[in-house]
Amino acid sequence: MEMIQFSNDNIKNSITQIIKSKLIPQPIKIRSIFELTCFSFDGIDAIKQSLLNGEKKGTENIPIKFRYLRSPLYECSVETYNKNEALNVMNVVLKEVEKSIEDKGGNYSLKVKPEEVEGKEKSIEEQIKECSNNKYDEEEDIKYEEEGIKPDVFTNNCNYIYK
To answer: Would you call 57 helix, strand, or coil by DSSP?
Structure first.
């Protein structure tokens, strides 16, 4: 293939800069949503320490960020150029958070597995709605009360326990 000859160096430099800017890779965002609860005396500190322990498992190239969504939902996210490495690091981080909170007597529940969200990103509100798709139903509680069963008020997943 023959090289293109430009009569003016300014045109050549301008075109080269435009091409280089278009070839820069764009970072991808990977996100996961999980639930953390701890009802012990130092539950808030246990949750905080679990998130800090998880954050320490991130790397310089894969900096993990946690964000509080609403009780008890948290988001773990990362922006990076290497999707596979980021997924591996995020899985390690989430396992560390789970281990840390369970060691303190708390509970961990993964609601949205780590996945790339660019291009198909749902709003946080939509994801929270998906995580909380089990809505409180007072009529259902009355029905179960009559049968001698009461709802487990500490979880949002419609578990029922016997009185």
So the answer is: coil
Contact 32, 99 (CB under 8 A): no
User: Is residue 108 within a helix (H) or strand (E), and if so which, with residue range?
Assistant: strand 107-116
Half-sphere exposure in the Cβ direction for 132 (13 Å, CA): 15
What is the token pair recorded at 77? 């996210």
Give the global pTM.
0.63
Which phi and psi angles does 70 have, rounded to 5°?
-170, 160
Distance between CA atoms of residues 59 and 159, nearest Å: 38
The H or E element containing residue 73 is strand 73-80
Give the 3-state secondary structure of residue 82.
Answer: coil
Question: What domains can be seen in the chain, in order of their start residue?
Answer: 28-117 (3.30.70.1130)
pLDDT number for residue 161: 40
pLDDT at 127: 61
Q: For residue 150, what are the β-bridge partners?
A: 161
How much is the pLDDT for 16? 83
Which tokens sit at 71? 């009780």
Chunk the chain into consecutive blocks of 10 residues (it has 163) and report each block's average pLDDT, rounded to whole numbers: 68 83 84 93 92 92 91 91 91 95 94 81 62 53 52 41 37
| Rg over CA atoms, the chain | 24
